[in-house]
Design a protein that fits this description.
By secondary structure, the protein is α+β, with helices and mostly antiparallel strands. 51% of the residues lie in helices and 12% in strands. The longest helix has 21 residues, at 75-95. It is globular. One of its GO terms (biological process) is methylation. One of its GO terms (cellular component) is nucleus. Residues 51-89 form the MYND-type domain. Keywords: Metal-binding, Methyltransferase, S-adenosyl-L-methionine, Transferase, Zinc, Zinc-finger.
C-alpha cells in the first residue's frame, strides 16, 4: 500500500495477486478508509456546473479569466487547480472548438505533470502499484489498441508544449493502467462527474458479492462496509454492474479487466434464474426460443451503447420501445434485459422532460431492482431519487417523499450519515 491504513493490511490474494484485508471488525456502513485522488479530471460536459478543483456543484461559480471555460468556487480553488489547469488553459483558447482530448488523455496528462512536479521515485512507484498492466497491453484487441493510439495522438496534439512525453511503450502501459484502474466519480444519481486514479483503492479486488462500496466526497474516494466484516476478511468491491447474469458479468470482466470471477455467486449462479425470468404461458416457451431471445437482447444492448451518442433522443426511445415489445413476447418484465431497456427509456424520458413517461418506466423497474441488486446498492438508491424527484414534479408529494426516504436509508450506509448529499436530501424532504 502507498501508506499505512489502520485496520487494513496488504496481502497476496490466492489467484488474484495483491489485495487488502481487514485486521479488525467493521460494521455495515462503517468507513474503512478515505483516499484522496492521486490525479483527477472533471468531465468537460460538467464544466460550469461543478468546481474543477473540489467538484462542488453549485450556481454562481467563477470562470477562469483566461480561457473562460473552467469554473471554480473561489480564488482558493482556482489557485489550487492552476498546476493542472495550466496544461489546458492556453490550449483551449488556441484550439477553440477543435480542442477535444478524451477524458483519459486529460487524466494521463495530469499524471505525467504531477510526476514531473514531485520528482520523487515513490511517485512513479505509486502509479505502478495500481497493477501490473504490461500483460494487459498485450491482451488488448485491435479495437482497444486503435483507441489507445488515438488517445496518445490526442495527448501529443493538445499537451506536447507542456509535457515531456515518455517513450511510446511506457505511454501504452500508462494508458492501459489508467483504463483498467481509473475510477468514475459519480453524483448521487450516478451521473458521471469525472475520472480519477486512487492507487490504494486500486489494490482492492473484485467480487460479485462485494464486502465494501466506493463512494465519493468531492474528489476523495470513501470505502465503506456493506457487510459486517471480521479480521481476515478480504476487502472486495464490484468492478461492474451486478444486475446481469453470471455469463454477462464475466464477459464484461474479461473484456475490461482480463479475468474471470470465481466468487460464490458466480459458482452457484443462484440469481440467474430470476434475472432471466420468462413469461408464464399456458404453453411453455421452448428453450431455443429463450436462447435466441437472449442473443437478441445482448445484441440490442450492445447496439444501444453504440448508437447512444449518434442518434436523437426520439430515435433512442423508439429503439427501447421496439426492443421491449420484441423481448416482452418471451421475457417477464422483471427480466434484466427488459429492466435494462426500461432504465434507458426512463433516462431518455427525463432528458426529454417527459416526467410521466419516466415514472411509468421507473415504477416497473424499482421492485425487481431492489430484489436483484445486493443490499445498500447505489443503483437502487439513485433510482429511488429519480422516482422521488419525478413524483414531486408531478405534485405527488406523499409517494415522492416515501421514495426519497428509501433512497436516504441506502445512502446513509453507502455514503455515511454526514455526507453533504445526505444533508441536502434531508433538506429536500423537509421542504416538501
Amino acid at each position: 500500500m502507498t501508506g499505512s491504513i489502520e485496520g487494513l493490511e496488504r496481502f497476496d490474494s490466492p489467484g488474484k495477486g495483491r489485495g487488502l484485508r481487514v485486521t479488525r471488525p467493521f460494521k455495515v456502513g462503517e468507513l474503512l478508509f478515505s483516499s484522496p485522488a492521486y490525479s483527477y479530471v472533471l468531465s468537460v460536459k460538467e464544466r460550469g456546473y461543478y468546481c474543477e478543483f473540489c467538484f462542488t456543484g453549485k450556481k454562481g461559480l467563477a470562470k477562469c479569466g483566461k480561457c473562460k471555460k473552467a469554473f471554480y468556487c473561489n480564488v482558493k480553488c482556482q489557485k489550487g487547480d492552476w498546476a493542472m489547469h495550466k496544461l489546458e488553459c492556453s490550449a483551449m483558447t488556441a484550439f477553440g472548438e477543435n480542442w477535444c482530448p478524451s477524458d483519459i488523455s486529460r487524466l494521463v496528462a495530469r499524471i505525467l505533470a504531477k510526476k514531473k512536479m514531485q520528482k520523487e521515485k515513490c511517485v512513479s512507484e505509486k502509479i505502478l502499484l495500481i497493477g501490473d498492466m504490461q500483460s494487459h497491453v498485450e491482451d488488448e484487441d485491435n479495437e482497444k489498441r486503435e483507441m489507445c493510439e488515438a488517445d496518445i495522438a490526442g495527448l501529443y496534439r493538445f499537451y506536447s508544449k507542456h509535457l515531456e512525453m515518455p517513450d511510446h511503450k511506457d505511454l501504452l502501459t500508462l494508458f492501459s493502467q489508467v483504463a483498467c484502474n481509473g475510477f468514475t466519480i459519480e453524483d448521487d444519481e450516478l451521473s458521471h462527474l469525472g475520472t480519477a486514479v486512487y492507487p490504494d483503492v486500486a489494490l482492492i479486488n473484485h467480487s460479485c458479492l462485494p464486502t465494501v462500496i466506493v463512494t465519493y466526497k468531492g474528489t476523495s474516494a470513501e470505502i465503506r462496509a456493506v457487510q459486517d466484516m471480521k479480521p481476515g476478511d478480504e476487502v472486495l468491491i464490484s468492478y461492474i454492474d451486478l444486475l446481469y447474469p453470471t455469463e454477462d458479468r464475466n464477459n464484461r470482466l474479461r473484456e475490461c479487466y482480463y479475468f474471470t470471477c470465481n466468487c460464490q455467486e458466480c459458482k452457484s449462479q443462484s440469481k440467474d434464474k430470476a434475472k432471466l425470468k420468462v413469461r408464464k404461458r399456458s404453453d411453455p416457451i421452448e428453450p431455443d426460443v429463450i436462447s435466441n431471445m437472449v442473443r437478441y437482447a445482448r445484441k440490442t444492448v450492445k447496439e444501444f451503447r453504440t448508437f447512444k451518442n449518434t442518434k436523437t433522443p426520439s430515435e433512442l426511445l423508439e429503439m427501447c420501445e421496439q426492443s421491449l415489445e420484441e423481448m416482452g413476447a418471451v421475457f417477464d418484465d422483471s427480466n434484466v434485459y427488459m429492466l435494462h431497456m426500461m432504465y434507458q427509456a426512463m433516462g431518455i424520458c427525463l432528458y426529454m422532460q417527459d416526467v410521466e413517461g419516466a415514472v411509468r418506466y421507473g415504477e416497473k423497474i424499482i421492485k425487481p431492482y431492489s430484489q436483484l441488486y445486493p443490499p445498500h446498492c447505489l443503483n437502487v438508491s439513485s433510482l429511488y431519487l429519480k422516482l422521488g424527484r419525478s413524483y414531486l414534479l408531478l405534485e405527488r408529494p406523499s409517494v415522492g417523499i416515501s421514495a426519497l426516504k428509501k433512497a436516504l436509508a441506502i445512502m446513509e450506509v453507502a455514503h455515511g450519515k454526514d455526507h453533504f448529499y445526505l444533508t441536502e436530501l434531508r433538506k429536500e424532504i423537509a421542504q416538501k
